[in-house]
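Researcher: Good morning. I'm working through a list of sequences from a screen, and I'd like to move beyond sequence-only analysis. For each chain I'm collecting a predicted structure so we can compare shapes side by side. This is the next one on the list. No need for commentary yet; just the structure.
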Amino acid sequence: MQANNLADQLCEISTALEDAVVQTHGELPTRSVTTLLLLRRCAAPSIKFISKQIGLSHSATVRLIDRLENAQLVQRMKRERRHVRVFLTAGGKTKADELAKVRTQAAQTLLARLDDEQCIALSKAFTQIMSGIDRLGSFEDLASLTAGRP
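Model: Good morning. Structure tokens for this chain:
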């Protein structure tokens, strides 16, 4: 029962962070936001890789990339054998940086309610949870990028 309650709480926190981004940049669908943030972390991934990471079919990912390319947020690179690589344009990088900043600020607002001891305990729990997630990079890499932030 406790695990279900914790799962519900984690989902609520995730939703709050997503809502903060949508509230600020509501003109972008959630999958577009996810893709821009992915491209911010990963230099020129293939469409196949993007598709796997964001959970869309290949054809749906191609349509998503088409929309982002029409908005001049991403650009396709020439084919590398069968792979088409995608990267952020200058405008896309700016937008992705804004999205990441809004999400981080929303998370900091939520975490500001905790004291230092609670933050340390939560960080340990998050580290353990994140170690089981198959993601680009590792949680330790992410933690090192955010170390020292107020």
